[in-house]
Amino acid sequence: MGVTWGRAFRAAVMIIVYSIVWVIVGALLIGIGYYFGYSGYTCSTIYNCGYNTNGTIEFIILTIIGVIIMYLGVIASFLKVQTDLVADEVEYRMKSSTTQ
Predict the structure, then answer these.
(1) I need a surface site. Which of 55, 56, 70, 81 has the fewest CB within 10 A?
(2) Pair 52, 41: CB distance under 8 Å
């Protein structure tokens, strides 16, 4: 029989939903990194201004981690939904073949 269009579109919607969740998590990490990077320029007095390199390093690290989480989350979402769909289809075919 194969996978119906309805199941395929439900799977596609689930991939999108899971992907949106991972993009939000990654964006939150990037936002936190941006906050640390934006607060990197400090002035304790008028004549004693300097640049806090720790904020910049935190920004870069959190941005890289956030982007990696986004990419891996989207790929993992696809793989999870795809394998669930295939496993359900195999289970269905195994049940139908044993009843015949």
Answers:
(1) 56
(2) yes
Q: Tokens 């269905």 — which residue?
A: 92
Residue 41 bridge partners (DSSP): 51
Phi-psi sector, 32: left (phi>0), alpha (psi -120 to 50), beta = alpha
Convert the pLDDT of each residue in 30-79 to its tens digit.
Answer: 999 888 777 655 665 666 666 666 677 888 999 999 999 999 999 999 99
Give the angle subtended at the CA of 57 by the CAs of 41 and 32, to the nearest 5°. 80
Q: How many angstroms separate the CA atoms of 18 and 16, rounded? A: 6
Residue whose C-alpha is closest to residue 77's, from 17, 35, 34, 8: 17
What's this model's pTM, rounded to 2 decimal places? 0.77
d(CA 19, CA 40): 31
